[in-house]
Cyanophycinase
Amino acid sequence: MTTPATEDGCLLIIGGDEQRNCRERILARFVELSGGKERRFVLLTSASEEPEKMARPYQEALARLGASHCDTVHTASRAEANDPAMAQRIAHADGILITGGDQKRLMATIGGTALDQALHEALKRRCACLAGTSAGASAMAGHMLASGSADYAPEKGAATLGAGLGFVQHIVIDQHFSQRHRINRLLSLIAQNPYLYGLGIDEDTALVVERGVGIEVIGDGGVTFVDGRNMITNAADIGDGEPAELIGVQLHVLPAGSGYLLPGAAPSARLHRITREAPAPIHEFICNLTKRNPLT
Amino acid sequence: MTTPATEDGCLLIIGGDEQRNCRERILARFVELSGGKERRFVLLTSASEEPEKMARPYQEALARLGASHCDTVHTASRAEANDPAMAQRIAHADGILITGGDQKRLMATIGGTALDQALHEALKRRCACLAGTSAGASAMAGHMLASGSADYAPEKGAATLGAGLGFVQHIVIDQHFSQRHRINRLLSLIAQNPYLYGLGIDEDTALVVERGVGIEVIGDGGVTFVDGRNMITNAADIGDGEPAELIGVQLHVLPAGSGYLLPGAAPSARLHRITREAPAPIHEFICNLTKRNPLT
């Protein structure tokens, strides 16, 4: 059994399509953040109806990266997700990647099960790297963006929330963000839930989150933060499907290569070349992202 | 010769495609803002290479609305735009609509000519309603969004500015905004020009601007304000084509039906049902939009 790579686990929140332009760059970082290619990796495919098809490109990419200890875990039912042997396969992993599919399927199957608990324990006790891409990214939040669309305007009721895995709190995560033009979908949610921060991650792009330290954007695109805590909105007064008025939303766009440390945090080997402290407008957002959650 | 409809001219900034869902609603408002169907209307088609094709649907729509005094003015050269007789046709109009096409063509032909001056005089002296749609909308600003695109991220140099007509100052106007997903194009410009406010207008949507009074959004979509005056950005330090970091952009979305008065302004018949004063986050933006410019 290997020992933890560092003192604390980290998150890798991926916007989907992570092998397009930045060929394996994000997965190479996943291997590195997990402690290197000798570590134990698990692909968790429970979000998908086609687990083998979903897993294969990741298995091949990890093999090319020299990560030979790669297990694939799929659960088609809550009974399977409560199987202690299944949960142990997660709890003993150093790097876990939750693949895409449908985040509602994922949570309906694993939410609140022994496997869910094992994910938290791997991050907390084993200091694993927990990665999620596409549906797997959205599910990492406590309030999970479940479904919906809003093409041309923020609309009341256009998107729905579900209960996610809770690795980040007070943040709702959207993926394929710029490519699928999802800013209005995210704003629709923020209009009705202004205490949630919105985080949109582009395809082939990921956010590295080191607990208690800071964040880094890697890959081909960028990440978008939407902060509606101080906005003025009529969302409470309009009907479902109506466009909402939003005044005073804070918008932040961080391209790949950008990243920030929490005030007072020392630069970390996990966050390449990130040396600057978060400026005031995104300070609280990054505090929230990097907060260490207690095991529940 | 008719007398001015009201004490001051107004602007109607249209996001293009204004006869789709809100069939003639926006053009009906144009007629109303110009003083009614008995007034003199001019279609200015200088932005287009196909002026007759561009003018015809507007001529037909205005005829259906009972506006029978409709002249079409086209200039293919600066010499024509400096023809005093041509300029007089503009100066004597109560409602002027600058049609779509290419805003660079429009400004190359009429910018700084007698016709340009006549537009300002019609607004200022005759209290006309000046409408612009699509290219005609962008050209209404002093700093005109001339060209460019930025699909998935705000990028340095992705969009270019030109010298526009200057009916609004310190504001850059984009159109077909949500339908063509132009927020990154607008943010690209704001990143390099943070003293400009960004105004994005959706298709089939218009912003009524009454000088010294307030604004109203009409039509099918909404308008987006982007305010980067207090943002933190690396735009000055990166190369052309590189994605910019933007932290602390203020974003406001106003759907149709929304609108605000300047503090202390009395409700106006031109701005239907608009009775609320602009809240603090958009106060300065609306002050800028509604400012009466001197004749230059």
Chain B touches chain A at residues 151-154, 178-179, 181, 183-184, 187, 202, 221-222, 226, 232, 242-256, 258, 279, 281-282 (CB under 8 Å). The CA atoms of residues 86 and 115 of chain B lie 7 Å apart. The two ends of chain B are 25 Å apart (CA to CA). The longest strand of chain B covers residues 246-255.
